[in-house]
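Subject: design request, 716 residues
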């Protein structure tokens, strides 16, 4: 590389990027959008006299990818991934699976093939860590929602590395067959295990030794050296450099100095990441975009709506409150750096249409433009969603949130052995569906061609018939997944409520379950099914012949029709159970016996016996036992001197700083409502909160004194 060309290219790229980012900052937009505009200005597709050497920019941009992935790895210590696995993990799997399915379906609607659909699904499944991190920093966003968002991003980033590895194999000419996927995943697993097994005893100790010198220069050089070394090893082994960089980051984070290393590497990361985004902007062809305006609009709508719905659903089922889930969803409605990498991989390998990369760039630019506004208005969006839910459903969601929080904090020993067995069975049933779909994908075209030669039936009809057959053969496996998911959810809910049968092989009869128990079971069952089923569909759809999409849609519609009645019944029971709780609170409020510091279940027993969904006192006591499975519940009476008076959950910071669950707010005029985050508190309000003693103490402190100075919340 000629030194003069390198210097000139850097001067042009960084100079133009500096100007464009100043403009975007002045307009309140993301810096990423400024870098993309700079790439458009210095690129070959706009007739301007300023031109940067694309080869030089592309080479330097790879350093940006490596350093960005290294920085992400520094936030992904093994302990952190383990801690977030129970909360953010399920939400991330549900969101990525549903977005992958939406991408595949959208691709086929746009006339693209299975492999292009796989690339599109992978593109829209991963949100932009860089855009979100920059926007959070600019708007000083903190609180519970930040941990939820970054927890989901952690698992998205891990999944993105796996997707990059699998898609790299597919772009090299391998068909999406079970053999090629198994070989690719086996190589990936071997490389990961080998790198971690060899690096874990060495790299953390080495970085701790380097940090002891207290020399920022030495520490930076050593950290970047480790980063580039692992990236080079990954490239030599046939994997993406991003994989090696993220492993290096994780190993360095295990030294206990991840935050310090991230701070030292940040200037280098920001510099070369800017060049990376400029290189992406250089690929934008306005004429090509004008020709692809319809796919751009469709995919943008799928990203904005699909991500909001899928993240909200996944987060609620994972145990987050409706408000927190909706705010997290609003923050994640964009695609970014991984989408560029995935689209670029498909285009450069010739696997996908050349239009896919500019489409990804434009969709990313549009969603990067909308993200600051979505994050800035996340509280209002969440309040609007909560306000549209009936009171009983809001209370049901709050109870479910409290139950799942309690479930995470308890060691349910009686359920462990049975739970492990059910998890194994679920995975085996899911693997059976994948094998069937993969086998169908392998034989569909040869069999269809052979039969067409003898029968004259169109090939697409024959492929559709094969798709129907594989669906039919998959039914027993799907039933097994649902059956074991229900059994696993039953074990959890029984152990949580203390109603586990003495004989673990027996179950509680459905007619003996209370509406609240059924609500908990339905929520846990749906969460388990979606955690497995959504990614399963995303994997299976590319393996099936094209005509089977119609068959899949038909079976999905038939399934909805069959289960419509049970779903409606479950919703009615959930509302009934929540109404029992609310009526119990109201009765105690009118009788002035609601205690200030006690378990609500003891105080509402008489009321629950007086209004059970079945009229049976034993059922009412069982309902109370379910409530008793929550964390300790406390009633806080709002006084006129409290900081929360005139404020709401949204503006007071109560829902952002404390992890306690606010189940209901009761007023002396008889009004009782599950808390909507934009409803203001008044003196005399009685707040029914559930959580650990520490969480409720933190909630009380925030309600009385306001949030701490360093706990900036989502701007509202």
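Subject: RE: design request

Done. Sequence follows.
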């Amino acid at each position: 590389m000629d030194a003069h060309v390198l210097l000139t290219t850097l001067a042009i790229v960084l100079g133009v990027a500096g100007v464009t980012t100043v403009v975007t900052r002045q307009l309140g937009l993301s810096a990423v959008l400024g870098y993309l505009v700079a790439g458009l200005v210095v690129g070959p597709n706009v007739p301007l006299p300023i031109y940067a050497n694309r080869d030089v920019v592309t080479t330097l941009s790879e350093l940006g990818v490596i350093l960005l992935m290294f920085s992400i790895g520094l936030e992904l210590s093994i302990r952190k991934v383990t801690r977030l696995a129970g909360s953010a993990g399920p939400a991330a799997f549900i969101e990525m699976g549903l977005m992958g399915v939406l991408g595949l379906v959208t691709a086929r609607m746009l006339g693209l093939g299975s492999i292009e659909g796989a690339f599109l699904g992978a593109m829209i499944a991963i949100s932009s860590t860089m855009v979100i991190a920059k926007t959070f920093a600019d708007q000083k966003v903190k609180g519970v929602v930040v941990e939820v968002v970054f927890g989901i991003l952690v698992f998205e980033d891990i999944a993105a590395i796996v997707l990059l590895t699998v898609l790299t194999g597919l772009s090299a000419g391998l068909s999406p067959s079970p053999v090629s996927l198994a070989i690719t995943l086996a190589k990936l697993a071997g490389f990961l295990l080998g790198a971690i097994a060899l690096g874990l005893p060495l790299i953390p100790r080495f970085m701790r030794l380097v940090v002891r010198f207290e020399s920022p220069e030495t520490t930076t050089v050593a950290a970047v050296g480790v980063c580039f070394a692992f990236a080079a090893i990954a490239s030599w082994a046939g994997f993406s450099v991003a994989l090696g960089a993220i492993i290096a980051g994780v190993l360095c984070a295990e030294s206990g100095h991840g935050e310090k290393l991230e701070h030292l590497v940040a200037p280098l990361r920001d510099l070369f990441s800017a060049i990376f985004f400029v290189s992406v902007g250089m690929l934008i062809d306005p004429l090509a975009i004008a020709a692809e305006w319809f796919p751009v609009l469709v995919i943008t709508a799928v990203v904005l709506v699909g991500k909001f719905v899928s993240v909200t659903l996944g987060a609620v089922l994972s145990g987050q409150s409706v408000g927190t889930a909706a705010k997290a969803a609003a923050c994640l409605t964009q695609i970014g750096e991984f989408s560029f990498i995935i689209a670029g991989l498909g285009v450069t390998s010739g696997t996908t249409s050349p239009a896919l990369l500019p489409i990804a760039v434009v969709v990313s630019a549009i969603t990067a433009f909308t993200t600051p506004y979505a994050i800035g208005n996340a509280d209002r969006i969440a309040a609007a969603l909560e306000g549209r839910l009936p009171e009983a459903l809001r209370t049901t969601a709050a109870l479910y949130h409290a139950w799942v929080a309690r479930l995470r904090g308890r060691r349910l020993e009686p359920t462990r052995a049975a739970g492990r067995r059910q998890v194994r069975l679920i995975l085996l049933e899911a693997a059976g569906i994948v094998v069937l779909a993969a086998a169908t994908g392998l034989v569909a075209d040869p069999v269809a061609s052979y039969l067409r030669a003898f029968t004259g039936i169109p090939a697409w009809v024959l492929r559709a018939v094969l798709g129907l057959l594989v669906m039919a053969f998959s039914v027993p496996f799907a039933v097994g997944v649902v059956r074991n998911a229900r059994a696993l959810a039953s074990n959890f809910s029984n152990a949580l409520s203390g109603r586990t049968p003495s004989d673990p092989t027996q179950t509680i009869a459905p007619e003996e379950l209370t509406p609240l128990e059924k609500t908990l079971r339905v929520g846990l069952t749906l969460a388990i099914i979606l955690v497995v089923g959504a990614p399963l569909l995303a994997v299976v759809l590319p393996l099936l012949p094209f005509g089977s999409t119609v068959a899949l849609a038909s079976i999905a519609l038939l399934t909805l029709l069959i289960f419509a009645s049970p779903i409606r019944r479950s919703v009615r029971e959930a509302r009934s159970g929540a109404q029992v709780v609310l009526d119990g609170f109201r009765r105690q409020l009118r009788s002035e016996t609601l205690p200030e510091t006690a378990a609500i279940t003891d105080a509402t027993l008489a009321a629950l016996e007086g209004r059970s969904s079945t009229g049976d006192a034993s059922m009412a006591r069982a309902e109370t036992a379910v409530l008793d499975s929550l964390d300790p519940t406390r009633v806080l009476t709002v006084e006129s001197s409290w900081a929360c008076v005139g404020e709401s959950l949204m503006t007071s910071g109560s829902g952002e700083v404390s992890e306690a669950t606010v189940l209901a707010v009761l007023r002396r005029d008889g009004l009782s409502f599950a808390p909507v985050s934009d409803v203001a508190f008044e003196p005399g309000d009685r707040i029914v909160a559930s959580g650990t003693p520490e969480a409720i103490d933190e909630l009380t402190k925030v309600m009385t004194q306001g949030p701490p100075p360093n706990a900036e919340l989502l701007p509202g």
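The beta strands are 633-637, 661-666, 672-673, 686-690.
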